[in-house]
Amino acid sequence: MSAAETEDRRSWMPYLLSAPALLLFIAIVLVPLAMTVLLSFHDWGQYKGIETVFILKNWREIWSDGYFHEVFLRTFRVAFLVTLLTAVLGAPEAYILSRMKSPWKGIFLLVVIGPLLISVVARTLGWALLFGGSGGVVNKALLNLGVISTPIPFMFTETGMMVALAHVLMPFMVLSVWAALQKLDPQIENAALSLGASQMTVLRRIVLPQIMPGILAGAIIVFALAASAFATPSIIGGRRLKVASTLAYDEFLNTLNWPLGAAVAVLLLIALVLIIVGSNRIIERRYAEVFR
Amino acid sequence: MSRNGPLALIFHTLFVIFTLAPIVVVCVVAFTPEGYLSLPTNGPSLRWFRTIARYPEFINAFWTSIWLGTVSSVIALAFSVPAALAIARYDFTGREALTALFMSPLMIPHVVLGIAFLRFFTQIGIGGTFLGLVLSHIVVVLPFALRLTLASATGMDRRIEQAAISLGASEWTVLKRITLPLILPGLASGWALSFITSFDEVTMTVFIAAPGTETLPVRMFLYIQDNIDPLVTSVSASVIAATVVALIVMDRIYGLERLLVGRGSGDR
Amino acid sequence: MAFLVLDGLTKRFGEHIAVENLSLAVEQGEFLALLGPSGCGKTTTLQMIAGFVTPTSGTITLAGQDLLAVKPAKRGLGIVFQSYALFPHMTAAENVAFGLEMQGVDKSERSRRVTEALELVGLGKFAERHPRRMSGGQQQRVALARALVIRPSILLLDEPLSNLDAKLREEMQIELRQIQRNVGTTTILVTHDQSEAMALSDRIAVMSQGRIEQIAPPHEAYERPATPFVANFLGKTNVLQAQVQSGQALLGEGRWPVPAGSPPRVLVTVRPEKIGFADGGAQALAGQVVTRIFQGNHWLYQVDTAHGRVTVIRQNSGETAPAEGEAVRLSWRQEDMSVRPAETAR
């Protein structure tokens, strides 16, 4: 039937309909992106400003300077650990949510994914309040409970950055796993139970393999967003602990070396695209049957 | 909740505490009567909420955000409706590529977009203007507008339109009387999601906005970079409260799950 | 010339041929059913008449005019869709009024005709209700009223009853037939349900793999199927292999005359309800009852014979029914069987 409904392959109608959006995107997405790539090859000097030449100076600087290596390594290390953290915490939570009865299911789903729509700045401020200030609420509580004897440094550390980022990006993981769980036939679990499988075995052998594509899809989203996050690393990391995006911001708005900042941003984009496309390939090959 | 064991419920409780803790702490600290960051142990006070009124920078930024979100979401919708109809209805060469292009702002780091727009707008002479903000926000909210429009256009039974055609309706009449009214709920939620996305956007906007065109999250971000005091927590608490209200309203009307996952359990 | 003529109609979707060289003539006021399994091309044919699918080749003429040159919106056909395709944001009355509005019928005339159409389908009291708040049967009637109110030259029904439960379906069949008789609109019904096609239509066109196998009145198609496909598709049937000797087919102890020039091996087709249990005599096929199922107004038997398993249906007329395991002798009248060469059988 679908063949009959979308039969005319050569109709000009779809092109006409999508032309406005396409032209808009060419004009204000593709052109600016191309200009940014060009910018990364331009020269810059303290007094001469941007010089529109085509040189590899900025790229060579990133390639040879250990500081840039450190920043990019930190960016991807934090992104990887944040992804791991959201998967380990978010996937079980999504499963628990899916097994709740209404109205609890709806209420807690709202509680868990609702923060997605709350301003990132406000959420990060919350972590800054918990971590920092005069000792921070978390440290005070842990000290009072006797769990620790000296305050754990959170503010201006990678640990703090990771906890806050995991919180900011957690809803994406829960949503992705939740979507995978919705496709699951509950009868399959019952079938496994009736064959004598324990609850643990059902989880490991039946549920987990089926929601794995959801976890991996969520992981890709979380990784991409963590590696390009800006506000959270900027507030929690402070001026000293830079990641790729805060470094680019510095070059642009403090040092005013736009070409170098553009090179950092373009490198981040390329690295992310390669990682995302690569892992998508692997996942699709591995889970070809599940996706079909 | 009987299907979850006690261990699961303990995990769930800790998870919910983790989720809510930073949001709650902002809202609690905002009510402090003291001049410094502290919990309102001596009873809540509205002192810092009243203080907001004396800071026109926050008030102005708030209105900039409201206008920016409204205008860019409406324009993004106007662009996505025809595009969504094309993608949902026709099997044409380049359909996949076009969809990927329109969805790409979701995957391009907003830092990169911010830099690209800063460079571009400066070159064409609209750097730091409201027009520049609107153009950039159209781009970042369009994927959200398109996704929800697409979902309702795909979910619609094509025979309903065929029925109207067989009864003598012209293409324009079908669009006006049948298609648009039927995808209206999708459009409304697409607008709402676009608005919130625009209202929250900070990473890209921080590059483009200039003093005078700063949005609320940008203003808050820049303020926090200098120092964290009870004033910015009361501003944040207000933003959180407004978002929570919007969230509950949207959940009632459209279902948050359907909005964010794309297909809810009650969906076709 | 007939009212609606399809001539050499063909539709290809890429490699796939949905409809192949289909020709068909429908008389004014006639009720024709396009019957066949899913994927046989019946819906594509209907969509070509409606104008939602463009034929690869062939012509469609309505009252002597080329229908393909007319836009779908201008064809003036009434269509009842399988999903009803009611406008969910309009009331029943607004749904029905829509077509009249498109024709520019003025308001008072419009409301008169809408009321009339809703009365016709027995929904006079439901005019202001939205489709969501109506039952499947009521939605079906709204769809019918909406199609009929524009006084279409042809009424196209696309599996209109398939979403209703069995009891309601039977009621609607009777009603649909009555309404069509009263209004007199030429009607084309697309269905995969042979009993629906037989109950409603004047003629049935049985389709398979994009082609028409047979066009005939229901009774004729049932009694004298032109092809094995038609025989099988229109109800249960028994197909028995038989040897031919001196102009007679040998089946057990029975000898049935076959047409002159029949090959040595033939296939004999007999409907289950035409087979009876013989008391004695030579014209019979011996067998043993394997299963016997009581179905209220009739008994259903499976009988093993030397020529394979035979299905027999006997009216529950009160006579004693042979038990399972009992030996029986099957017989039927000469005119109730059809014979065709074994080689060409599909």
Question: How does this structure look, described?
Answer:
The complex is a heterotrimer of chains A (292), B (268) and C (346). By secondary structure, chain A is mostly helical. Chain A has 14 helices and two strands; from the N terminus they run ααββαααααααααααα. Chain A has helices at 2-5, 13-39, 57-64, 66-98, 104-113, 120-131, 137-145, 158-182, 186-194, 199-227, 231-237, 244-255, 258-286, 288-291; strands at 43-45, 49-51. The longest helix of chain A is centred in the N-terminal third of the chain and has 33 residues, at 66-98. With 268 residues, chain B is mostly helical. The longest helix of chain B has 34 residues, at 56-89. The two termini of chain B are 26 Å apart. Chain C is α+β, with helices and mostly antiparallel strands and 346 residues long. The two termini of chain C are 35 Å apart. In chain C, a hairpin with a 3-residue loop joins β16 and β17 (298-305). A six-stranded mixed β-sheet of chain C has the order 6-7-8-3-9-10, with helices on both faces. Chain C has a five-stranded antiparallel β-sheet with strand order 13-12-11-14-20, with no helix packed on it. Chain C has a five-stranded antiparallel β-sheet with strand order 15-19-16-17-18, with no helix packed on it. At the A-B interface, α2, α4, α5, α6 and α8 of A face α1, α3, α4, α5 and α6 of B.
Short characterization:
Chain A has 14 helices and 2 strands; from the N terminus they run ααββαααααααααααα. By secondary structure, chain A is an all-alpha fold. Chain A is globular and about 75 Å long.
Gross morphology of chain A is: globular
Alpha-beta content class of chain C: alpha+beta
- What's the total number of strands of chain C? 20
Radius of gyration of chain A: 24 Å
Distance between the termini of chain A: 20 Å
Provide key terms for this protein.
heterotrimer; B: 268 residues; mainly alpha; MetI-like fold; 12 helices; 74% helix; C: 346 residues; alpha+beta; Rossmann fold; OB fold (Dihydrolipoamide Acetyltransferase, E2P); 2 domains; six-stranded mixed sheet; five-stranded antiparallel sheet; 24% helix; elongated
